[in-house]
Amino acid sequence: MPLETALLIGLLFACGTYLVLQTSFVRMLFGFLILSNAANLLLLAMSGSPEDRVPPIAGAGSGPMVDPLPQALILTAIVIGFGVTAYLVILLYRLFLDQKTTNAAELYAEQDTTERT
Known about the structure:
The protein is mainly alpha-helical. The protein has helices at residues 3-20, 25-46, 69-99, 104-116. α1 runs antiparallel to α2 and α2 (25-46) runs antiparallel to α3 (69-99).
């Protein structure tokens, strides 16, 4: 794995983790998106370079074949990530409609004041 790719993956994981740990649910959503893209990039980088390899189905030449499993895993991860992201967007929208806030600190502060009275 080239150094630039490793640094990019590390930066994406760091930014995604930072955003997931914020109190705003919108930032948490963006952190989840960045983390899922970083995981996909990590899988793609770990699969290796396809240079000098033949396709597994229409391989006319002889030699090592390209492994199709990483691409299948990434495609599955993209579809699952899109579904979870759509669910989180709808959940965030309902939270905003019901509570009029997307900040976790404000949301739990309101619950603490109602429990004390």
